[in-house]
Amino acid sequence: GIQVEQSPPDLILQEGANSTLRCNFSDSVNNLQWFHQNPWGQLINLFYIPSGTKQNGRLSATTVATERYSLLYISSSQTTDSGVYFCAGNTGNQFYFGTGTSLTVIP
Amino acid sequence: DAGVTQSPTHLIKTRGQQVTLRCSPKSGHDTVSWYQQALGQGPQFIFQYYEEEERQRGNFPDRFSGHQFPNYSSELNVNALLLGDSALYLCASSSFRDGGNTIYFGEGSWLTVV
Asked: Does A13 touch chain B (CB under 8 A)?
């Protein structure tokens, strides 16, 4: 199966700081997505970004499909940004997830 | 617009017992996938159902089985529970007609096996 590597595994930020999360895939995937998992376990869709760049408020994402990686940018972080961030991509019907980046934003 | 709903949210079972988890997909979606997420890990694909049939299966034993109903809802059954089955079980729905590009998750079912 496809291996998904996310970095960094853990990140602690002061409120207001910026950060970049990275996701590398061992092989080409389709339909790359970024998710935020809240403390109750639900995975919230952030971006559907198979290629290119998208922005949504303080968050933006860039995927370079030819090099099999994606980046998630968080600007002016807030305490509500805390949680675990996952990227995932699929081949066929199966989505492959990384082990996530655990983000803690402290006031 | 109803999102993906799962039940129950939490349950505790004894080793060797059987459990059934339920999922209703997002309105307009026809495909349901199940994932297992162990503590500190990313979700792992169990299987996917479309048109009431299992389309693809991940690396899980036959103790894990599923079903999809005509209204697109789905069940995940796990027999002969092991301590290692303790995890968050996530249901994801998508639309085959739309190419299954985007998956949406429910809040999950937390299973503890004691």
From this structure: no
Q: Within an 8 Å CB–CB cutoff, is residue A73 touching chain B?
A: no
For residue A95 the two structure tokens come to 């989505």
Closest CA to A93 of A36, A43, A29: A29
End-to-end distance of chain A based on CA atoms, in angstroms? Answer: 40
Q: State the Cα–Cα distance between residues B106 and B63, nearest whole angstrom.
A: 23
pLDDT for B28-49, tens place per residue?
999 999 999 999 999 999 999 9
Q: Which two tokens stand for residue A76?
A: 């002016």
- The yes-or-no verdict on residue B100 having pLDDT over 80 is no
Q: Please answer yes or no on whether B44 and A97 come within 8 Å at the CB atom.
A: yes
**What is the structure's pLDDT at B1?**
60
**Once rounded to an integer, what is the mean pLDDT over residues A86-105?**
94
